[in-house]
Specification:
single chain, 142 residues, mainly alpha
Length: 142
């Protein structure tokens, strides 16, 4: 186990600046996303929404991700993954802010759909971005 950590640390030091930033961003995004989803569920419940409606709102996030999975990959290839990653990172706080200031179920559903799409863009774009910005030796550790 110790050698795995040492190998990863050495590989990370050799990685490009873009790869280091992307890995750090994914770490922060993942932690904040899981914390947000937990707090968001509690917020909706405390706001008086019933569990069926909360489930429907959260379901919209999955629908957004499912519908746009294939087009996202194509658009990322065509226009560049870095642009998509930056745009998604900018849109996530805006979407979360809108969801935090309303309990209107239609607005929550629409922005949950958008949240699913935007987080999917990050998940789909990050792996090819890391592959494009790393050497074959570094990819083993990424």
């Amino acid at each position: 186990m110790k050698s795995i950590i040492i190998d990863f640390t050495v590989a990370l030091r050799k990685s490009s600046h873009s790869v280091k930033l992307a890995l750090f961003a994914m770490f922060i995004i993942s932690i904040s996303q899981y914390a947000y989803m937990t707090i968001f569920n509690l917020y909706l419940s405390a706001g008086g929404l019933n569990t069926a409606l909360i489930g429907g709102i959260l379901f919209m996030s999955g629908i957004g991700a499912s519908i746009f999975a294939f087009p996202t990959g194509i658009l990322g290839d065509r226009f560049g993954r870095k642009k998509f990653l930056v745009l998604s990172s900018i849109l996530i706080p805006f979407i979360i802010f809108i969801q935090a200031i309303t309990l209107n179920s239609k607005i929550l559903a629409i922005f949950s759909l958008l949240y699913g799409i935007v987080t999917l863009v990050i998940r789909i774009s990050i792996d090819p971005f890391l592959a494009e910005n790393s050497s074959s030796e570094e990819r083993v550790h990424l």
